[in-house]
């Protein structure tokens, strides 16, 4: 079972795994920003990041094989 995942089209030997893993950094940064005063958070950057995440959620849903790791990462990011 583990080897099947490792060798799968969305396993850790592919960019379809490491790309979303790197994007979890955006989620961590958003969570860290929750402690900042509202005045210090950029409205423009927040809007761009939300749009970016929504765009890539659609991409992750449409691409074959469907990349649920990328989808969940960007769903979390848009939620934060």
Provide a brief overview of the structure.
The chain has four helices and no strands. It is mostly helical. It is elongated, with a radius of gyration of 15 Å.
Features:
80 residues; mainly alpha
Walk me through what this model shows.
- This protein has 80 residues and is mainly alpha-helical.
- It contains 4 helices and no strands.
Helix percent band: over 70%
Encode the helix/strand succession as letters: HHHH
Radius of gyration: 15 Å
Main sheet?
none
- State the end-to-end CA separation: 33 Å
β-strand number? 0
Oligomeric status: single chain
Q: Structural class from helices and strands?
A: mainly alpha
Which outline best applies? elongated
Q: Strand fraction band?
A: under 5%
Give the averaged pLDDT, no decimals: 87
How many helices does DSSP assign?
4
Low-confidence stretches: none
């Amino acid at each position: 079972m583990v080897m099947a995942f490792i060798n799968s089209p969305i396993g850790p030997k592919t960019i379809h795994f490491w790309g979303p893993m790197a994007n979890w950094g955006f989620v961590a940064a958003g969570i860290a920003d929750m402690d900042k005063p509202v005045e210090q958070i950029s409205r423009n950057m927040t809007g761009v990041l939300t749009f970016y995440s929504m765009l890539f959620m659609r991409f992750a849903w449409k691409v074959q094989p469907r990349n649920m790791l990328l989808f969940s990462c960007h769903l979390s990011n848009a939620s934060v």
